[in-house]
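Table S5 (text form). Sequence records supplied for joint modeling of the two-component complex.
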Amino acid sequence: EAQVTQNPRYLITVTGKKLTVTCSQNMNHEYMSWYRQDPGLGLRQIYYSMNVEVTDKGDVPEGYKVSRKEKRNFPLILESPSPNQTSLYFCASSRGWAGASYNEQFFGPGTRLTVL
Amino acid sequence: GQNIDQPTEMTATEGAIVQINCTYQTSGFNGLFWYQQHAGEAPTFLSYNVLDGLEEKGRFSSFLSRSKGYSYLLLKELQMKDSASYLCAVWAGSYQLTFGKGTKLSVIP
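The corresponding structure-token record, covering 225 residues in total, follows.
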């Protein structure tokens, strides 16, 4: 089954304790992306990757890191989480970007993160 | 910068037709997507427009006017399960997909 998986689905942590949220896709997609979703603000892009070892900042990258060492995986790293990073996080992937309907984003199930 | 506007909330009656509008001002344009998101779940793809005009897909249709920076999603024969948020998203002149804040649709009996 074609899918994007994220782990963990739920996480409660404390300020300053490094954490990683994993994301994996099995569709051989080139493009992967991380979003956070907050009430009243909608989905905002954190980082994206066009291929292995190619990443770039989205609209809200501060406090986050990513890596793309393999095509299927795109982990999100919070080196020193703070309470303002409490949010619902989605990983997504697509064949490519722009210009075609087959570039729809497939979303993972989401990770609800609480930073105390 | 990119700016995408949608109404925050809408209410419609079961069996009726509802139109959800989206206006955008972006630095480029490479296509517009509509997604549906039920509460607590991931967004799922509904439609895609890159050329002006109407795209129809069963009960759902989406329209685009590039010259006006305007799109709408039309939902016909509304069902209770259509209660969800509807997200408009634009691929602008970059590698980023920018989302509007979403329109929460409530379908009432």
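Note: Residues 35 and 45 of chain A are 4 Å apart (CA to CA).
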